[in-house]
From TrEMBL:
The keyword Disulfide bond applies. PROSITE patterns: IG_LIKE (PS50835). GO terms for biological process: homotypic cell-cell adhesion. This is CXAR protein. Its main location: membrane. It is found in: Cell membrane. The keyword Cell membrane applies.
Length: 126
């Protein structure tokens, strides 16, 4: 039986927070010996408006974090763990704004495995 990459963060896939608060969107994972490629963790924002395309907001690839894709969140988000290779690709979003409401998808890739998990975030007005 081959174990492949699995996302282990629990079943909670909906979060409600007030504006100005911080949220941690969980994305923990386990790798298997089969997975040999470089680790790649990508968080994508899937807009509520289907007319808009999904947007990469933060990416961890080849030991570097790239987080300048999405101006709306610049400076307000970070990986929870400084070293996502530890199996924790969770995302912190600070000082929440109503516009942060949406569906966030964590994609973890390490060849040959790819797994993803969607989390719905609702930011409530004060």
């Amino acid at each position: 039986l081959t174990r492949s990459l699995t996302i282990t963060s629990g079943d909670q896939s909906m979060f409600e927070k007030a504006q100005g608060e911080k949220v941690t969107l969980p994305c923990t994972f386990e790798l298997s010996e089969e997975d040999e490629g470089p680790l790649d963790i990508e968080w994508v924002l899937i807009p509520a408006d289907n007319q808009k395309k999904e947007q990469v907001i933060i990416l961890y690839a080849v030991d570097k974090v790239y987080n300048h894709y999405y101006a709306g969140l610049t400076g307000r988000m970070q990986f929870t763990n400084l070293d996502p290779r530890s199996g924790d690709g969770s995302l912190d979003i600070l000082n929440l704004k109503a516009s942060d409401t949406g569906t966030y998808q964590c994609k973890v890739k390490k060849a040959p495995g790819v797994q993803s998990k969607k989390i719905q975030l609702t930011v409530l007005g004060k």
